[in-house]
Each structure stands twice: as C-alpha cells, then as structure tokens.
C-alpha cells in the first residue's frame, strides 16, 4: 500500500508539473515616434509548459476564434461581425516561441500572404543587480540588458518556478514580472496567472517561411515600400482575401476592381507604416 501511495503521488506531481500555465501581461506601447501621446495598451499571453513557452496577443486568439466559428458555420468571411473584429485589432501581430529543450527562441510574424519565422540569433546578456523590491505579491530583483537598440530594465521573481518572460525576454533565474525600456516606450506588466488545459491552436494562414533574422528585416522593409509585390505572389492573385499585419484585413471584399483594391491596400499599408515608426526593436 505504501508503494502504491508513493506511485500515486509521483503521478500526481508529474501531472501537475506537465500542466500549462498562462501568465497575462498588460503590454503598453507608443508605436508612433511623432506622437508619443498615442499610447496603445492590450493584454498578451505567455503560456508556459515544461517543453516550451509561447507569447502572443489575447486579441489574436479572440479574432481567430471568431473567424473559425464563422467558417465552421458555412458563412465564410461574410458571416464575420466586422465591428467586433475591429474592436479586437492588435499591435502585437507576432508570436514568440521558446524551446526549453534546445534553449532557442523563434519569432513569427506575417508579411503579406505568408508567415515568416526566424531563430533569434542575439543572446540576451543581463546585468543582475542586488536591488530588490515588491511588485504586487511578488518579491522581485532588478536586471538590465541592452537589446535590439533599447536599454531594458526587468524585475524578475524566484517566487514562481519559471525562468521565462514576455516577448523575447528570458535567461534570468526567475520569471519576469515587469520589463520596461529606458524611454518608456514599451512596458510589460504581469497582471495575473492561471492554469490552462493545453496550448491553443493559432490559425496559420498562408505558407510558413523559415528565414534568417536579417532576411526577415529586409522583407519587412520591402513590404513597406512595395506591398503589392507580396499580395500577388503565389496562386490566386489579389482577388483572394488576405490579412496584412497579422489579422488586419485589407477591407472590402466581393467583386471589386483589382486596380481599386491595389490602391486601397497600398494606401492602408503606408498609413499604418506612418503610425508604426517606433517599433519595439530599433536595430
């Protein structure tokens, strides 16, 4: 009986440790370099299991759910509530996945029709301070790093059994509770956490292209100057609906003049580019 009890306890511990934990962060951003009063704020999820973690927008998973229900109902895009989708716009169009086994970080973002994926090739080098404080219920310790053109200050806790953080932040001996750059343009604040049954399935439209980070940056710049070269690639031309910037439709639909569609798409991309002149990564 004693052996059975030990086995049962071991199985219980194994089951608990294998669960996925969701950490909800409030992400605050100032994406427009010319208008720092334009502050965007939304929630993002950091889902952690023993094998991996995934960081992505809360609004994205809500939009995916709406689209999935619409297509399952047989109505396609015509069945989607546009006002509801508009209210769920996100400035966090990317996902960041960390492979715990191989200690690698993968970044994914949409450019035109396709999803681009690259392995982060710049290690985070932290300078850990002896300074401590308390944020909410957690005792936290200060750490600083220079990454992608910004100087970041992070506060991590060892009160929780995780060595991870939002976005690409990781490599600290604890979980990042708060991270902010020295200009106050971007911040990540842990709000709450709870257990979930499993990782949600994120819709992956188009092809997934694995590239080097430098190639991804080049493609991003090309998209801003010549978006239609990305819209017309592959089969279907521009008559097929597509999302720009991870979930933002080009607008319209149905039988539209291709020239008009092209003009609207170009105008929209350029307008969005003007409002996103202060990206989280400057280098």
Automatic annotation (TrEMBL):
Pfam families: Porph_ging. Residues 244-255 have a biased composition (Gly residues). Residues 1-18 form the signal peptide. The keyword Transmembrane does not apply. Keywords: Signal. InterPro entries: GLPGLI. NCBIfam families: GLPGLI (TIGR01200). This is GLPGLI family protein. It comes from Chryseobacterium ureilyticum.
């Amino acid at each position: 009986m004693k052996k059975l009890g030990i086995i049962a306890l071991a199985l219980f511990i194994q089951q608990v440790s294998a669960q996925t934990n969701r950490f909800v962060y409030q992400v605050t951003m100032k994406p427009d370099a010319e208008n720092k009063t334009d502050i965007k704020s939304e929630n993002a999820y950091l889902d952690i299991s023993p094998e991996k973690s995934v960081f992505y927008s809360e609004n994205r998973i809500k939009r995916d759910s709406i689209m999935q229900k619409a297509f399952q109902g047989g109505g396609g895009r015509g069945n989607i509530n546009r006002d509801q989708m508009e209210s769920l716009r996100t400035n966090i169009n990317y996902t960041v996945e960390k492979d715990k086994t191989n200690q690698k970080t993968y970044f994914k973002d949409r450019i035109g029709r396709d999803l681009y994926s690259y392995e982060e090739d710049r290690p985070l080098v932290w300078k850990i301070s002896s300074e401590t404080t308390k944020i909410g219920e957690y005792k936290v310790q200060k750490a600083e790093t220079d990454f992608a053109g910004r100087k970041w200050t992070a506060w991590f806790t060892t009160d929780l059994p995780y060595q991870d953080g939002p976005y690409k932040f990781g490599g600290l001996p604890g979980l990042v509770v708060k991270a902010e750059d020295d200009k106050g343009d971007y911040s990540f604040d842990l709000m709450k956490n709870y257990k979930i049954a499993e990782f949600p399935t994120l819709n992956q439209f188009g092809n997934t292209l694995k590239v080097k980070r430098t190639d991804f940056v080049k493609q991003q710049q090309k998209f801003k100057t010549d978006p239609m070269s990305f819209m017309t690639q592959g089969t279907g031309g521009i008559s097929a609906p597509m999302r720009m910037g991870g979930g933002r439709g080009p607008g319209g639909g149905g039988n539209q003049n291709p020239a008009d569609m092209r003009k609207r798409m170009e105008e929209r991309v350029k307008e969005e580019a003007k409002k996103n002149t202060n990206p989280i990564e400057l280098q």
